[in-house]
Amino acid sequence: MSFGYSCAILNYTVHQNCYPVNYNQGLKAIKLLSSRFKKIILLGFSAGGHLSGLLGTTEREKIFNAVGMILCYPVISFVHKVHKGSRDNFLGNKNKNNVEYRKRFSIDNRVSPNTLPTFIWTCKPDTLVPYENSLFMIKKLKENKVFHVSKIFKTGRHGIVLGENNKEVSKWVKLACNFVDKIVKN
């Protein structure tokens, strides 16, 4: 908000078998916000980055005025370098080992030329959600020629949020604002 943007926070379902409840909550929030705002940027951290990525790789007509997404140390893959807690909560005990579901809900497998422009960042030393998750996404964004900006910081940790007490990581906020300015002005 201090950068001049309006903000809304989505409290969404995170318990076992949260899909499609969390996805539908996200779609409903986007629809509601689209009635008030012409351009919406999705932003999510960690498992919230997975939900934002899921929404940002959805057919455009379903996400109304969403025009970009910011993924912060996001959970991307349920196949490789998996954060098991996020996968298990998202898919539930019944489906956590279902190979088809794990592939279908890995965000990098959902990227297409219609994916929202993306700003993605992570910290290489992240021991909770391996930084390679972001690399999987960046690779697919490049392959599909989706406008994106990425930053992998050499320092930092999972859950660093705004990067307080870390000069390097705290730069992500300004970089993300520059990305948003480019998206909003087009």
Describe the structure concisely.
This protein is α/β, with parallel strands linked by helices and 186 residues long.
Structure notes:
- By secondary structure, the chain is of the alpha/beta class.
- Helix 1 packs across helix 2.
- The chain is globular and about 45 Å long.
- It starts with 20 loop residues before the first helix and ends with a helix.
- The model has no long low-confidence stretch (mean pLDDT 94).
Question: Key features?
Answer:
alpha/beta; 186 residues; globular; 37% helix; single chain; 4 strands; four-stranded parallel β-sheet
Reconstruct the topology from this structure.
Layout lengths: L20 H14 L5 E6 L1 H10 L9 E7 L11 H12 L3 H6 L13 E6 L8 H12 L4 E6 L17 H15 L1
Parallel strand pairs: 1-2, 2-3, 3-4
Helix pairs in contact: 1-2
- Give the biggest sheet: 4 strands, parallel
Sequence of secondary-structure elements:
HEHEHHEHEH
Mean pLDDT, to the nearest integer, reads 94
Q: Could you list the spans in which at least 5 consecutive residues all have pLDDT below 50? A: none
Count of helical segments? Answer: 6
Oligomer, anyone? Answer: single chain
Share in helix: 25-40%
> What is the tally of beta strands?
4
C-alpha Rg, in Å?
Answer: 15 Å
Based on helices, strands and strand pairing, what is the structural class? Answer: alpha/beta
Alpha-carbon distance between the two ends: 21 Å
What's the overall geometry? globular
Beta-strand portion reads 5-15%
Spatially, the strands of the biggest sheet line up as 1-2-3-4
